[in-house]
Amino acid sequence: MMSTSASFSANLASFLGPSRVLTDPVPCAAYAVDKTIPAAVAKPASAEEAAEIVRFAALEKVALIPCGNRTKLGIGMPPSRYDIALDMTALDKIAHYDPGDLTLSVDAGLPLAKLNAALLEHKQFLPLLVPWYSRSTVGGTIASGIDSPLRQFYGTARDFLIGAEFVDGTGKLCKSGGRVVKNVTGYDLHKLLIGSLGTLAIITRLNFRTFPAPLASRGFVASFQNAEGALALRRAIAESSLTPLTLDLVSPELARLFATQTPQTPEVAVFAGEEQPSGQSLLPPVGDWFRPSEWQLCAAFASTPEVLARYERDLMRLATNSSTTSTKFLDDNSRPSLWGRLRETLSMLLEASPAAAIFKINILPSYHAALFASLRQIAVRAALPHALIARAGGTIYFALLPTSANDGNTNLLAQTATQISDLLSASDGPAPANRGHATLLFAPPALKHAFCVQDISASRRLKAAFDPQNIFAPGRCF
Amino acid sequence: MNAGLINELEKLLGVSSVLYQPEDTLLYEYDGSVEKGRPDLVVFPESTENVSQIVKLAAKYNVPVVGRGAGTGLSGGALARTGGVMIVFARMNRILELDAENQRAVVQPGIVNYELTRAAEPHGLYFAPDPSSWKSCTIGGNVAENAGGPHTLAYGVTTNHVTALELVLPDGEIIRVGSKHGEAPGYDLSGLFVGSEGTLALVTEITVKLSRKPEAVKTLLAIFDTVDDAADTVVDITARAITPSACEMLDGWTLRTVEDYIHAGFPMDSAAVLLIEVEGLAEAVAAQAAAITEVCNAHHSREVRLARDNAQRELLWKGRKNAFGALGRLAPSNYVLDGVIPRSKLPQALRRIHEIGEQFAFQIGNIFHAGDGNLHPILLYDPRDAAQFERAREAAARIIRYCVEVGGALTGEHGVGMEKSELMPLLFSDADFDLMRRVHDAFNPDCALNPGKIFPLSKGCGEIRVRKQAGATATQR
After folding, report:
1. Is B188 in contact with A191 (Cβ distance < 8 A)?
2. Distance (Å) from the C-alpha of residue A97 to the closest C-alpha of chain B?
3. What is this structure's pTM?
């Protein structure tokens, strides 16, 4: 029997202490997920306290959603139940950092920017430059599964997350992996937490391998009148000996957004050589070297002066043989304005259109040209503004950007989303069978159900193993 | 063994694909580890459908199933601990697709690791995980154990290169996880299944990333008069955030044994050598090689040699990769450990291993992936001497305990298997085992697949019986 929200809130407050439990509707509203407001917010001060809350929730049969600074809670399906928000931001310590080992153990609630500031003192960093960067917590970043432009060189979190501690659905503190860079002892359960949206476990601590922070870095932008030209240069770079840190293709529509908008998330310096902005400063505008009416291929690279010179030579040679209309190398002064926007693409798209539908499409690079054309066609037919960014490894973010969130637009978005889904599953389409997948990353709640994930029986088995009573973020994954 | 099962398997696969005479199954009771476990039946499927049908038949007769690649594993992962049916993937060894533009290959599990690299080479590509056994081990086995190798220091282990799997579950169901790209809706199931040691499902098809061959490679041999200096050099290379593509250490005793056999050019009078490789753009490689030489010199390296050409480079690597073969000349058997430590603990760990060797009266050699703290102490012993074998196991357990004490783990790339399963409680609590057990049961609820692995027998498959009948000489502690 599920207890009433008033009684479990009182019970929660009685054992956590009133200062760690919010029940007023106004602060609780700030924890809404897809418009569902929790009855209470609990803020554990330790992993043990988080486990205690989970045991309480299991007993009372109430549903929990863990969160950090709540920047990416829009990702995922609307919850089927949501009683308690578990705010993990009080767990914010670096538990263990040995720069000599390049390994790290950090509490889930620590903001990434603070973590990287500590690592940069030892000329190291964690290559997770994700949107809402200065506010995102480590735990939220892992649970959301969000990627970073740096994946081109460093891979995604699954390549450098080496262990985790977490509370399972029975309220027990568990762990997997460890603090060494190579380890096959036991199942790699921590990898399952990446992108799990809080549905499997409450992440309390994460272990990473860290990386040497890039030395002097440079940017390179080449503009093109069409996607094909940009894709040809991208392929030439991919087949060369160069290994850029980032390699992203930006559509003209997104380039226009970059040229006219400033991300609202406060800016922090990331790399060596960048000036540390003071207080709540925002990114400077991109310079007039940026050609917003065209496709842009954007690369970043970092190394010693000799290697940087080699990059510049080789990129110029490859660009000269391409159909580029202009190229530009960016230094530490000009680079952050564009790289900050590349990192903040998702936050900027949602700031431009809060009712946006943003798809994440994973498809191998050779299928990009045909897919871009089809996506554009669908958006144009629906008369919906749109924008696209494609990572060289294959991940594409495609956004439909309605100008307002009325019912008509929601219907139009739903129809268009269905067309995109059909496009990706059609055997004769630009993404033949087994080559690509699309997920609807951000969208108005009404739209999300229309675009549900298929083929998830194996994931369901895991959900039941981690969380037998289905108290963690029910409905968020499937 | 049940005649009905043999009959049905022979009908399904043909008589030449089913072995059950003791003299035939005897060949499959070993792998590269010190363990034994003989299957009652060995079968050779040629397709995923075959595998599914075999698994269904085994379920019908209530017999466990174990998958096996080339049997080069070092933890008893591919041994039939409780007898049953062994599925050998030798005939499922084809490359199904090689997509050079997207740097992907789709392969069957029985393909030999090196064969994939050979097929990819004309495109300037290769498969990065390179276990020492790469010329005989299979990619299916690499996936099961999440195998590493010298060059995983820079490029990651098997799991970092697998994007999709086709799997057969114990009830015969065929599922696909991951995608050609790598990411797929739902949880990172490829990440779970890679390294699950055949305890969750049988892998029947693997999609892997292919890496681009670097433009320049430099191989350095740094020679030291003390093990401490060599170990300090590794710590310093890591601390200075230099990332070689490989950083291997051979101690003096090991390198002399290897040199006698391979003639790789290792100096016979040195206490330790580091085999260090850097790869990438020519300019970057030159700078890294210079930085590494500087670190070596700072730690009293007697000499840093640069491989002159490809032939010399290959000879040095031959010395490293065939070291275990060389050691085979000294004793009837060797026991290779696989503990991992935080890299900064390397000097003290090597001293401790030496002490443990003296205490147990073993000469312990060290030839290992120093760059990522993955130790491979090697104990030479005679398996016919039961007391000596027990002493070897005790010394091994002592070393592994030490690795855990300094913040490390039981195994870096060989897997837990049946060799280290009883040591798992050193790292994991009852709560951890409960969860791992529930994950295990989500896919393999009746312990039909590879029973008696990873979990300590008391925490694994409930009432699992370790059979000690003639022919199934399973060992247990």
Report:
1. yes
2. 11
3. 0.95
What pLDDT, on a 0 to 100 scale, did the predictor assign at position A274?
A: 63
The runs of H, that is alpha helices, within A278-406 are 305-320, 335-343, 345-352, 368-381
Looking at CATH, the fold of the domain delimited by B331-405 is given as: Alpha-Beta Plaits (3.30.70)
CATH class given for the domain over A217-343: alpha beta
- Positions in chain B short of pLDDT 50: 463-477
Q: Give DSSP secondary structure letters for B280-323.
A: ESHHHHHHHHHHHHHHHHHTT-SEEEE--SHHHHHHHHHHHHTH
Q: Are B180 and A364 in contact (CB < 8 Å)?
A: yes
Closest C-alpha to A457, from A478, A428, A429, A427:
A478
| Domain range list for chain A | 5-87, 94-212, 217-343, 356-443
Closest CB from B156, B189, B241 relative to A124: B241
Residue B366 contacts by C-beta under 8 Å, 6 or more apart in sequence? B249, B250, B251, B254, B350, B353, B375, B376, B377, B378
DSSP conformation letters of A201-262: -EEEEEEEE-EEPPSSEEEEEEEESSHHHHHHHHHHHHTSS---SEEEEE-HHHHHHHHH--
CATH architecture of A94-212: 2-Layer Sandwich (3.30)
Q: Whole-angstrom Cα distance, residue B6 to residue A409?
A: 64
Length of chain B: 477
The class level of CATH for A356-443 reads alpha beta
pLDDT value of residue A409: 82
Query: Given 3.20.20.450, 3.90.950.10, 3.30.365.10, 3.30.70.2190, which CATH number is that of B216-325?
Result: 3.30.70.2190
Position A4 confidence tier, pLDDT thresholds 50, 70, 90: low
Q: Mind listing the pLDDT tens digit for each residue in B169-201?
A: 999 999 999 999 999 888 999 999 999 999 999
User: What kind of fold does domain B92-212 have according to CATH?
Assistant: 3.30.465
Residue B273 C-alpha, separation from nearest chain A C-alpha, in angstroms: 21
Residues of B in contact with A211 (CB under 8 A): 241
- CA-to-CA dists, residue B286 to A33, B219, B282, angstroms: 53, 11, 6
Mutate to test the interface with A, among B96, B187, B434 (most CBs of A within 10 A): B187
ipTM of the complex: 0.95
pLDDT for A161 beyond 60: yes
Question: Looking at beta carbons, which residues of chain B come within 8 Å of A103?
Answer: 342
Instruction: Test B239 with A243 for CB contact under 8 angstroms.
Output: no
- Tell me whether the CATH fold assigned to A217-343 matches the one assigned to A356-443: yes
CATH T-level assignment (fold) for domain A5-87:
3.30.43
Residues of chain B with CATH 3.30.465.10: 92-212
For the stretch A417-442, pLDDT in tens is 889 988 887 767 776 666 778 889 99
Residue ranges, CATH 3.30.70.2740, chain B: 331-405
How far apart CA A319 and CA A300 sit, in angstroms, is: 15
